[in-house]
Amino acid sequence: MSELLAHExxxxxxxxxxxxxxxxxYVVVPAETLADLEAYRRLRRDAFVHEQGLFVxxxxxxxxxxxxxxxxxxxxxxxxxxxxxxxxxxxxxxCGGRDLGWxxxxxxxxxxxxxxxLGVGAALxxxxxxxxEEAGALRFDAVVQAQNAVLFRRLGWTVLGETELLGHPHVRxxxxxxxxxxxxxxxxxxxxxxxxxxxxxxxxxxxxxxVGDDASPVPGADLVAACDAIxxxxxxxxxxxxxxxxxxxxxxDVAAMGALPVGLLDAxxxxxxxxxxxxxxxxxxAASAFGVPVLGGHTQLGVPGALSVTALGRPHPSLxxxxxxxxxxxxxxxxxxxxxxxxxxPGYTGRQWDSxxxxxxxxxxxxxxxxxxxxxxAAKDVSMAGLVGTTGMLxxxxxxxxxxxVADVPTPDGASVGDWLTCFPGxxxxxxxxxxxxxxxxxxxxxxxxxxxxxxxxxxxxxxxxRWPDGVITEAVHTAVTGLGAA
Length: 487
Fold this sequence. Notes:
- It is a single chain.
- By secondary structure, this protein is an alpha+beta fold.
- Helices cover 26% and strands 28% of the residues.
- Strands 1-2-3-4-5-7-6 form a seven-stranded mixed beta sheet, with helices on both faces. A seven-stranded mixed beta sheet has the order 16-18-13-19-17-20-21. It has a five-stranded mixed beta sheet with strand order 8-9-12-10-11.
- Strand 2 and strand 3 form a beta hairpin.
- Helix 8 (239-256) packs parallel to helix 9.
- The protein is elongated.
């Protein structure tokens, strides 16, 4: 798996005899010692410089010096290195050295007398795929010698096309990363079947035009309503943060419709009064910061920790009505507007970004002006399905497919792109707008605390594709996210 691949077959020269080694007598591990690295590089030099003549003197390059590069080796119980491979952020010129969640594998090599019957090359490739996903990659590819395409197809890779490298025919191959698909299946895919019985009547599940929205217009009133529950494990582990987030996510749901929150209702379960007080402290602090009164609710003691909040809001006076999540159409541009400040919430690295707890009340309330300022055709706040999954829900409700330009998505310096596109980001809105709008907003100026960029399109079809700087589109979500269909 590499620009220059050696694996289980004899590459050059006369046939070799393979020594007998038990196929279970080696393990694939990270190369953590200088001895392992030196043995790996010696195998590379022997194969690519001396055996194949692809390089003169050395095959070393700048990737070897990049501290982000990871090397895996297949090592026997006696410490002998039978082969190795490296993986690293893509060196494609369009990336400009930035880690976009696009990783590549290269310099796969297997010792000459371990190339038959042991499966060392295949084991290294499989381990590299798992390591790339563990590193947060959303794309993992390689350029391999053409005769080795069979191995990669057998291991589940997709062959993208042919190329020539160093005077030899090669193919580009891609490993299908399933991180986003697994996330939406865990959080959203069951919704259609579960909610089928609630869809009856003119206002069921929000009514026509709003099916699938996190908030819903209230029939007969100039109001929208939203309700969110916090994971019980989060309530038990971090009660103050759970209380804060219960307000945050509901205010975001209301704000995504271009509405201003006017009141909250809470339902709290706790093992005792002391624990309930901690939950309510976080909830009270957040409600005060956003300037939204808690109108009432329910508190029950002597039960496991539980928390849900309902928010009521009124559409912003500058808008004709609530902004739906399904108001997009093919040809509309996608925009992401996010607060990139803050950092990972302790204990939730890679999953929950805290952009709000350090903000002043004025800064938090300014976020309520984002959707009215943009005046989009469709809007959704990023939920636990992550930015890509939420974009998929907007596209599904709009009867479209979404294509996101990964390099253009606003991303904080403290998060990898892979984590940012799959986490709960604190405050981030995905919106759709007419293509003629460009980078300008329609009704007002966005608050200073957010960063905004157009970064994709709605097109005919279903699911979500990720478009990379080289123009390749990989599939992140293969079908509809919720199954609820167009709004």
